Amino acid sequence: MASYSKKIVPLDVVLNRKPVLDTGVALPDVTVLRLSLAAENDVFLHFGESGDPVDLSQGYAFHITPPELTGLYVTVTVPHPGESLRLLLGYTSGSPSRE
What we know:
Elements: E1 3-10, E2 15-21, E3 27-34, E4 43-47, E5 53-55, E6 61-68, E7 72-76, E8 84-91
C-alpha cells in the first residue's frame, strides 16, 4: 500500500544538496506541487546521493523505477525570499515523517 507526505523546502537561502528524505526509504514518486516561475531555473532535485541535478517546474511528476533508496536532495542556486518548493512524496509502504 502506498502512502504520501508533503515536504516544504524554503528557498530563502542558497542550498547545496540539502537532504529532503533520508537514505533507506523507498521513494517511487515525486510531484512538484508548487514552485514559482521566478525560481524554476534556480532549484534542482537530486535523486540519490550521487544524482545529477534535475530541472523542475510546477506540476512535474517523476516515477522512479526502481524506487530511489539513497535519498532525495535539493539545490538552490539563487535565493528567493518568501518562496518555497512544495513536494508530494509517494512511498511504497509507510510514511517516514509528515510536514
